[in-house]
Amino acid sequence: MLARIYKPTKTAMQSGGGARSRWMLEYQAESRPAADPLMGYTSSSDMLQQVRLDFDSLEDAEAYAVRHGIAYRVAGAHERTVRPMAYSDNFRFTRAQPWTH
Questions:
Q1: How far is CA 91 from CA 57, 82, 84, 86, 95, in A?
Q2: 75, 5 in Cβ contact below 8 A?
């Protein structure tokens, strides 16, 4: 059983950065999902796929994995790049897409 430890990115619906300091431990799939022949639902016999644990720091997540004998790999955190843009850039003449109003 292999686990992945990563720092989740914020969703498109979030504007604040408060929850981005958490680290997640998520188990990797051990079996492929199969389609039910009668209803067509996709299911799997691997229940660990549903387990997600969150930790305050990377060290806490690694300590948990070591303490419970879980093989893990750490995925690097993706940092958000902010491109500063002024409101007036929406109306500039060299805009890539024309203004549509």
A1: 44, 20, 16, 10, 7
A2: yes
Q: For the chain, first and last CA: distance in Å?
A: 55
Supply 94's token pair. 């060299």
Identify each DSSP E strand in 2-93 by its residue range. 2-6, 23-27, 34-35, 42-43, 52-55, 71-74
CB 25 within 8 A of CB 52: yes
Give me the residues of the chain with pLDDT under 70, please: 11-12, 14-20, 99-101
Answering whether pTM is above 0.90, one says no
Q: What is the CA radius of gyration of the chain?
A: 21
- Give the whole-angstrom CA distance, residue 6 versus residue 62: 11
